[in-house]
Specification:
By secondary structure, the protein is α+β, with helices and mostly antiparallel strands. It has 10 helices and 16 strands.
Length: 378
């Protein structure tokens, strides 16, 4: 990784990005550059290492604070003692102890209760945060699923192979071996007492998890996530269109501490077709018609998604006119109905006239006395 490259730039997120945005950016890039997906590609391997390093820092609240203050020198600043924590949590502890000359009316505890949530009677306030080792549901994973045009029309059931980012099972998504936090004793909260408030805030040392990482996980490199290849059975409903989401419950990221797995959300991307064009629930095609068929009327065969169909050409049909085949379009999801097929007529002329054809057309021309270019009578 370029030593001057910013971690936020590596992941392609803004400095004010939320943890969800950071996770999503990491997963998107990890899927693209993971060594399992790019075997033998050294450039992709180096890029993946850079992505993992950036994610390891700015996905951790404490490391991110230090990085935002000191940049790439944050590790040296931490080791040399220049980093000083503090902020709103220290302010709460000062208020709880009645220090700093700060006093408030009785409604202040109610305000803090609305912010953090209550755990009991009186003025006790605690942070809204899951306790350490609490079962956590796995995150939902989104993935694009390419669907051939024909399968989108008729529906299908197929097995697909996906390589997805998932919680590392070796470290349970933590990033390494852990031991109970020495600052909070594994409770995940740092308590302060005194005054009229009893404040419980997330422990600044373990960020409320109750654990300290003692050794980086060798499998995920400390990121807490790994790429996992899976074969999944998917049922594609008839009529699915691009952008439609197919939900597979329990096929997402693994849960933590015994929690359930998340869901896999497949975003459909339907392929194109050389003959048929889709417009909502209708199918559009263009078909050539002999000028004699258009003039005299005829019944012709035209292709449809469901096989050949008979189309009646009314006498006097004009070039570019659109005719309709009802019920020959796209299945309407959630019902037994289908849209229509719209057929745009293209008048075809003979590429070369025989002597007899020329004679007949000359006779016809003599009989056709109207001038089609004349202005209509009012």
């Amino acid at each position: 990784m370029n030593k001057t490259q910013d971690y936020y730039d590596v992941l392609g997120v803004s400095r004010g990005a939320s943890q969800k945005e950071i996770r999503q950016a990491y997963r998107r890039l990890a899927r693209k550059y993971h060594p399992d997906v790019n075997p033998g590609d050294k450039a992709a391997e180096e890029r993946f290492k850079a992505i993992s390093e950036a994610h390891n820092v700015i996905s951790d609240a404490e490391k991110r604070k230090q990085y935002d203050q000191f940049g790439r020198a944050y590790q040296h600043a931490q080791q040399s003692g220049q980093w000083q924590g503090g902020g709103f949590e220290d302010f709460l502890r000062t208020v709880a102890a009645g220090g700093g000359g700060v006093t408030f009316g009785g409604s202040f505890a109610d305000i803090f209760g609305d912010i953090f949530g209550r755990t009991g009677g009186g003025s006790t306030v605690t942070a809204r945060r899951g306790g350490p080792r609490t079962p956590q549901r796995g995150e939902d994973i989104e993935h694009e699923l390419e669907i051939p045009f024909e399968e989108a029309m008729s529906g299908a059931e197929k097995t697909i192979s996906l390589t997805l980012s998932d919680r590392c099972q070796d470290c349970n998504g933590v990033g390494g071996k852990t031991t109970p936090c020495s600052a909070c004793g594994g409770t995940g909260v740092a308590k302060g007492g005194g005054g009229f408030l009893n404040i419980s805030t997330p422990c600044p040392q373990c960020q409320g998890t109750g654990d300290q990482i003692t050794a980086r996980c060798s499998r995920c490199g400390g990121s807490g996530e790994v790429m996992r290849s899976r074969r999944i059975r998917v049922k594609i409903p008839p009529g699915v269109d691009t952008g439609r989401r197919i939900l597979l419950r329990g096929e997402g990221a693994a849960g933590a501490h015994g929690g359930p797995a998340g869901n896999l959300i497949l975003r459909a991307k339907v392929g194109s077709h050389p003959t048929f064009q889709r417009r909502d629930d209708d199918i559009l095609i263009e078909t050539p018609v002999k000028f004699t068929e258009a003039a005299l009327g005829a019944e012709i065969d035209v292709p449809s998604v469901w096989g050949n169909a008979k189309l009646k050409i009314p006498a006097g049909t004009k070039n570019g006119q659109t005719l309709r085949l009802r019920g020959m379009g796209v299945p309407k999801m959630g019902s037994n109905e289908r849209g229509d097929q719209l057929v745009r007529v293209s008048i075809a002329m003979p590429p070369k006239l025989s002597q007899r054809q020329r004679e007949l057309l000359e006779e016809f021309s003599e009989e056709w006395t109207e001038n089609p270019r004349a202005e209509p009578k009012r």
